[in-house]
Design goal:
heterodimer; A: alpha/beta; 22 helices; B: alpha/beta
Chain lengths: ~550, ~140
């Protein structure tokens, strides 16, 4: 008998839920009137859709001009399996690809590394070399799709692999469109898939920004991500502060390198969580656009309007999914997705209902995609731009998030900026505190979650889940052994030596990485060289 | 020994909370560590990326009664057998292992057959875990 689904000892019906606060703890009043918006100036605070400060959206015609991109994150097992899933999703109307890599790939280890044991192909697709990347995109023309890759610590290397696959397909780099996540600061704060210490990692990020501004004008070399910060337990305000705060830090570093702000800023993209508090989330997206526009124009002096516009991908909140009554997750996800659309997202991933158990089955993934299609085709929400604009309540929430943001940013700047704050563990501690508070509010019944502490069902009907072929690791290891025996190993050694020398100096690392990728050096080999120069990072683990 | 050995009440339960494997999603592990501490237990949190050997050695050194493992990556099928085997080799059969994270229903039996005392899936109330540990504590011989 499993103890997995024990009900809480406190019967939920006896505890009074705290209804008067948002999910992040902001007090909510019974009714909002004009009085609550004193000082609100529609022309300065709102502007028109497509106009500064973009509170109402970055396009004048929003989804009438072009609906959001339905971009379902997926990846599992060997590249061949993931390639099949991509072609399945594209055939069913998905409009962009989004690659999930497995943990060894995220951490810069090859599939045959002892540290990869048990992890190969589990949380995403296993990619150890250019050969795997070629397999992943077989028969998918990279000049015609947009591809997002959720990869950060090893992003420069995986991006180089993608670029070389495109090169081999005969696609012009200038035409490639897509995104690499590459937001290293959120790794130290939340996702914790870091490899090197913060400062050499920041150099790698700036290398990719610099390379992108000269070579891949339509590719986003970074997706500054609040998603993981929120999933780790941050509030909506903390998500804004640590994400846009990281954005400020990247801009500062790039400008210090000598990059022209209007050459790289238009390609900075963002990624946010969309959680269950409907109005707070919509306000968060509106505030994010307004804050970023002000920072870029007024603080950094960007002149190009495209530098002011915050473009973002949203994903529904994985952390809100429950193992109990899993089909209910479909309802949660649909409502979260609606908030993302009303908040003006450029692209969206909807989670599958089975993800509290495993990676999604094909059926569950299709249902999640269909949820977005229902929103786009049947509900009318794509017609009027920013339909909540002018709502007393929404505008108050938006203003409060903006004010809170600038107060918190000042605090971080006083610490010496985000890199220093991260080195000192400040965001990490703040996030851990919020996540514990949130969990306690559920435990104490102040917050109710259907199936967890409200409307509990003791019986639990199992749902089908995806299981990953356990032979993936062996198959990938065998491929690596073959690759190592068939490639020109002298060329690999030369390329890796060059990479090491470049890392010790201060030239842009993208070029030696591209050369090593073309020689079929593996991910692990390249990361080992960089670990040798930069060192490996481990955090002080405080609870 | 601490003053607790002179008291008639039982000493606090010692728990090692560990995150084996490459995954860095540590929200659950940290929340549980704090909750167990707030419930009066002595909690040692190993931090990220611990090998099974490091986990078992820490459990031995810290003389814990429970090891709480948090695994969200699907690597439990590889990690748990290694942890259980090491515990057996070191004759630490008085240490109970509890597992939390993204564990599919169909794997729970296999985990329990390997000797895992309990599996807690997402959405488990903290109180259930605290209660489980309290109720399943074994009498230990005082050496």
């Amino acid at each position: 008998m499993s103890t997995a689904l024990k009900s809480p000892s406190t019967p939920s019906e006896t505890v009074k839920p705290d209804r008067s606060r948002t999910l992040s703890g902001t007090p909510v009043e019974k009714v909002y009137t004009r009085d609550r918006l004193s000082g609100f100036d529609p022309s300065a605070d709102l502007g028109d859709p497509g106009g500064f400060p973009f509170t109402r959206g970055i396009h004048a015609d929003m989804y009438r001009g072009r609906p959001w991109t339905m971009r379902q994150f997926s990846g599992f097992a060997a590249p061949e399996e993931t390639n099949r899933r991509y072609r399945y999703l594209l055939e069913h109307g998905q409009t962009g690809l989004s690659v999930a890599f497995d943990l060894p790939t995220l951490m810069g280890y090859d599939a045959d590394d002892p540290l990869a044991s048990g992890e190969v192909g589990k949380c995403g697709v296993a990619i150890s070399s250019l050969a795997d990347m070629e397999e992943l995109f077989r028969d998918i023309p990279l000049a015609e799709v947009t591809t997002s890759m959720t990869i950060t610590s090893s992003a420069a290397i995986l991006w180089a692999m993608y670029l070389v696959v495109a090169e081999k397909q005969g696609a012009d780099w200038a035409r490639l469109s897509g995104t690499i996540q590459n937001d290293i600061l959120k790794e130290y704060m939340a996702q914790k898939e870091y490899i090197y210490p913060p400062r050499p990692s920041m150099r790698l990020v700036v290398d990719t920004l610099e390379f992108g501004s000269g070579n891949t004008p339509k590719f986003n070399p970074i997706s500054i991500s609040g998603y993981h910060i929120r999933e780790a337990g941050a509030t909506a305000l903390q998500e804004l502060v640590f994400t846009l705060g990281a954005g400020v830090e990247y801009v500062k570093w790039a400008v210090e390198r000598g990059l022209q702000i209007d050459r790289f800023a238009p390609r900075l993209s963002f990624f946010f969580d969309v959680h269950s508090d409907f109005f707070e989330e919509i306000a968060k997206f509106r505030a994010a656009r307004k804050i970023w526009a002000r920072l870029m124009r007024d603080r950094f002096g960007a002149k190009n309007e495209r530098s002011w516009k915050l473009r973002f991908h949203a994903q529904t909140a994985g952390v809100s999914l429950t193992a109990q009554q899993p089909r209910v997750n479909l309802a949660r996800t649909a409502i979260q997705a609606l908030a993302a659309v009303l908040g003006g997202a450029q692209s969206l991933h909807t989670n599958s209902l089975d993800e509290a158990y495993a990676l999604p089955t094909e059926e569950a993934a299709l249902l999640a995609l269909r949820t977005q299609q229902v929103l786009a085709c049947e509900t009318g929400v794509i017609e009027a731009v920013d339909p909540f604009g002018g709502s007393y309540f929404l505008e108050r929430l938006t203003l409060d998030l903006e004010t809170g943001f600038f107060e918190q940013l000042e605090k971080i700047e006083a610490m010496g900026g985000m890199v220093t704050a991260v080195e000192n563990g400040y965001p990490q501690a703040e996030i851990a505190r919020s996540s514990y508070e949130f969990q306690k509010s559920i435990e104490e019944g102040r917050r109710r979650i259907v199936g967890v502490n409200a409307y509990i069902e003791e019986e639990h009907e199992p749902i089908p889940t995806l299981s990953i072929d356990h032979t993936v690791a062996e198959k990938q290891s065998a491929k690596l052994a073959r690759l190592r025996s068939e490639r020109d190993n002298a060329a690999v050694t030369r390329a890796l030596d060059n990479l090491g020398r470049a890392a010790e100096g201060d030239t842009n690392l993208m070029f030696p990485i591209l050369d090593a990728v073309r020689a079929y050096a593996t991910l692990g080999e390249m990361c080992d060289v960089l670990r040798g120069v930069f060192g490996a990072y481990s955090e002080q683990s405080a609870v | 020994m601490s003053a607790a050995s002179f008291s008639t009440s039982a000493p606090p339960i010692r728990v090692l909370v560990a995150k084996p494997g490459l995954d860095g999603h540590d929200r659950g592990a940290k929340v549980i560590a704090r909750a167990l501490r707030d419930a009066g237990m002595e909690v040692i949190y190993t931090g990220l990326r611990q090998t099974p050997e490091q986990v078992v050695n820490a459990a031995l050194q810290e003389d814990v009664e429970f090891i709480g493992l948090s695994i969200l990556s699907g690597a439990h099928a590889a990690i748990i057998p290694r942890v259980m085997k090491l515990l057996e080799q070191k004759e630490m059969d008085d240490v109970q292992v509890i597992l939390g994270g993204i564990i599919p229903d169909e794997d729970i039996d296999a985990m329990e057959r390997l000797g895992v005392a309990a599996v807690f899936q997402p959405g488990t109330p903290l109180e259930s875990i605290i209660t489980f540990i309290r109720e399943n504590r074994r009498q230990r011989d005082i050496a």
